[in-house]
Amino acid sequence: MEQGNNNRVRNILIAVLIVLITGTIFSIGFYIFSTQSKMARLEKEREQKPNIVQDPNMISIKSVKPEVANSQKKDSYNNTQSRPKTMYEKAMINRMASVENELNSYTPDNTSSCDEYVGYRVSLHNKWDNELNQIYKMLMASYPDSQKKSLKNEEIAWIKERERTIDGIRSEASDDCSANIEIENREIDTIKARAIELAEKYDRLN
């Protein structure tokens, strides 16, 4: 009877061992199968990706970007080509900025007399007149004969208009001081505007 019990226990242990071994084998097999399935799926996806880019019915974003970049480069190049190489106007304005700041700091309130104040306005007038004469000579040196004649006639007409304006101010002014102040301020604005206009013409040549 005791031997029968031992046989029964041994059979139970063998059955349990078989179940454990079978479960382990099954788990390993399932892990290997899952791993192989994942690898096969990834490989399939990698193989399909090139077909998406090469499909002629679909536009790849990567293929569009270089065209946009090239277009932007062309636009930038064209803008650079159309931009004047010489920036004489900008250089002139920068050059005169410090002169204007200094001479414009004088007012009728911080000068001792009308003549002193007008003297500072005349100085600024003369500075802009020098700039105008310089850019006029540069244009005359650069223009062909036909444009030289046109510019000369234009300048004569401009001077005559200035003279008419000055005469009008003198005739309407109540006294010499106010007339001189208004004339010099008008002259500064008129000559500065003309100098900038001619500088723009010069920049378009270069």
From TrEMBL:
<keyword id="KW-0472">Membrane</keyword>
<dbReference type="InterPro" id="IPR009739">
    <property type="entry name" value="LprI-like_N"/>
</dbReference>
<protein>
    <recommendedName>
        <fullName>Lysozyme inhibitor LprI-like N-terminal domain-containing protein</fullName>
    </recommendedName>
</protein>
<feature type="domain" description="Lysozyme inhibitor LprI-like N-terminal">
    <location>
        <begin position="125"/>
        <end position="198"/>
    </location>
</feature>
<dbReference type="Pfam" id="PF07007">
    <property type="entry name" value="LprI"/>
</dbReference>
<feature type="transmembrane region" description="Helical">
    <location>
        <begin position="12"/>
        <end position="33"/>
    </location>
</feature>
<keyword id="KW-1133">Transmembrane helix</keyword>
<keyword id="KW-0812">Transmembrane</keyword>
